[in-house]
Amino acid sequence: MFSEKEASWSRYSKQVKVGDIFEAKVSCIEDYGAFVDLRFPDGLYHLHGLIHISEMSWDLVDNVRDILTECDVVRAKVVRVDREKSRISLSIKRLEEDPLLQNLGTVVPQNGLACPNSPNFRGGGNRSRILPLPGLERILEELLQEDGIDDARIRRHGFEKRAVSKDLQIWLSDERPANRRINLLARAGKQMQEIQLITSLDQEGIQRALQRVFERIP
């Protein structure tokens, strides 16, 4: 015999697919996220879903209750439907574009220099340079110890609108390698830096090199 919950899932879950956007009412808040009721076209709330704390905002969220309270009504996007476990995972932040996907030219100044007011800018006479984000200098030093990497230097520095993570993050740029040049992007807080590598390695080779570097650095 089906319970009411199982009957609702059986009837309405077929109408839910990844990418759908629902109006949702917060029914319960936990440390790890918020449970919500999904409003269907008939105006009734037939199914439940979870918005994990990591899916609340592109900004760093330490406490779900800083973002939501019970009975709040929000818009949320379906990111996963687990039909075996009758679970729906939703996201608020994915209604907006990931800041990482912003055009780099709108984030980092095109002249290759940090803003003179930035703590990461150091000037003197006609010379200026960008100071590495905390922890990045050691990573660059270790990268230069890798076979196939001839040079690694910071080309540009800028600021994002949001602080997604306090920790230093590094990833490969989507730009295609050209003339032995591959770009990496580094971010900490709202600061972003572009690193240009001169290398004979391809993108997979750079990924393996980064992995080795991260294993060496405590």
From TrEMBL:
Q: Which domain of life does the protein's organism represent?
A: Eukaryota
One Pfam entry for this protein is: S1
GO molecular function terms noted in the UniProt entry: nucleic acid binding
Q: S1 motif domain location, by residue?
A: 19-93
InterPro entries, sorted:
NA-bd_OB-fold (IPR012340), Ribosomal_protein_S1 (IPR052757), S1_domain (IPR003029)
Return the PROSITE patterns for the record. Answer: S1
User: What name does the UniProt record give this protein?
Assistant: S1 motif domain-containing protein
Q: In which organism is this protein found?
A: Lupinus angustifolius
